[in-house]
Amino acid sequence: MTSPVLPREAIRPVSATQNQMTLVLDEQTLELLARFKELTAHRNPMATNAGAIRLALEIAVERVDPAREVKVRGAPEKRAIELEGRASAEGGTQPGSDTRVPQSVPTPKAAASHESSSRRPSRRPSRPLRRSIWRRDGVCQYVDPLTGRRCASRFKLEIDHRQPFSKGGRTTVENLRLLCRAHNAYFGARIKWG
Ligand SMILES: [Zn+2]
Q: Exposed/middle/buried for 165, CB within 10 Å: 0-12, 13-18, 19+?
């Protein structure tokens, strides 16, 4: 038995507003599509696949877009957790090396010699604060110092403290911004060595 040759996922325009897309779907995806069409028949009366996919994507984007009003409990909060994790990776690796940083590496003494003992501010922005940042920025805010051009990527955006939290930067609308993962990592690395 030969394995089937899968056509490449391709999109080509068939009119000014319509596109033809080639997809290979597994059985489970087809079942999900069929079930979704049953559940949403009142909103997709012709039960077209294209209509179902559009509706499913509208619902999905509504759910995962941090800039939208949150109606669903339990929406992903992973990014904030990832950001919190970055503090523990300070100090240790050489640039370009892939060595893993142990969890208990001491922070550079200049960076964290004094920590406010009276009140511990939160590194993690609240959901409304995150939504404000997402709505205000929308794209990566990194500006190239040489060209003056903004990165403006919309891919893998993360919330960043302009003034690092570990150096007293606060979790406020003024001190937070969106960065793409690459530029967030860039500033993370710079903080380590700067
Ligand atoms: Zn960027």
A: buried
